[in-house]
Amino acid sequence: MLALVTNDDGIGSPGLGVLARVAHAAGYDVVVAAPAEESSGASAALHGAEVDGRLVVEPRDLPGVPDGVRVLAVAADPALIAFSAAYGAFGDRPDVVLSGVNRGPNVGNAILHSGTVGAALSATALGIRSVAVSLDAAEPRHWETAELVAAHALAWFQGVDAGQRTLNINVPDVPAGELRGLRQAPLASFGAVHARIAPADEGSSTGSGDHDRDDQSVVLRYEGTERQTEPESDAGLLQAGWATATLLLAPYADTSLEVPPL
């Protein structure tokens, strides 16, 4: 069994090592393939850079991954990485895609814009079981708590018939001993998501790897008020110290309302 680990924070994020360890401990062979540059807010975009018709891919070293795990920096958004993996771009077709651990929450209907969730949804749409994991801090300290929750979630998720569902996990940035537990939660009305904003003269966020230009970009956080006004939503429960689990179903065609023929 093969697990693909990706994210939208880029190849240098410690969250990749967290999910690589979770997958390895669960018995998977693991490959890490993540954007060479920050791709927050990419949603399910299929943007990438190519040379002679091939995605630009470079091997990297990444602290925290188990021995023998391949680590690849890819000049592409995370959804394109998941899409390409399904067709053998990085070896065998993965049995599961783990996306994250994202720096910052991905809650509420705002997950529509998340590159972390977009990668997972893209994998699910191609018939690959997928989990997105986020940690509720811009600069997390308690990666071990995310690792604990992600391992629990994967152990459950790999043993159920999930159909076309993606599992979205959010974890408060607290020590494991202070975590209240894990609860299934509905999406907040808006929620929270991060987006990368680049200078107007930047050629591409997934282009040549021009780090001088990329360093000029900023990551903005968009957040609603539901942490206070919707306490039983994923945003509200996360604020209260719970890890949250939400099953997402997309793409989904609703035939309950009939459109008149022309």
Automatic annotation (TrEMBL):
The protein's superkingdom reads Bacteria
Q: What class of enzyme is it?
A: hydrolase
Tell me where in this chain the Survival protein SurE-like phosphatase/nucleotidase domain is found: 4-187
State the EC number(s): 3.1.3.5
Q: InterPro entries, from UniProt?
A: SurE (IPR030048), SurE-like_Pase/nucleotidase (IPR002828), SurE-like_sf (IPR036523)
Q: Which UniProt keywords apply?
A: Hydrolase, Metal-binding
Q: Which reaction does it catalyse?
A: a ribonucleoside 5'-phosphate + H2O = a ribonucleoside + phosphate
Pfam name, any one: SurE
Alphabetically, the GO molecular function entries are: 5'-nucleotidase activity; metal ion binding
Gene3D superfamilies recorded? Survival protein SurE-like phosphatase/nucleotidase (3.40.1210.10)
**To which protein family does this belong?**
Belongs to the SurE nucleotidase family.
By what name is this protein known?
Answer: 5'-nucleotidase
Organism whose genome encodes this protein: Xylanimonas oleitrophica
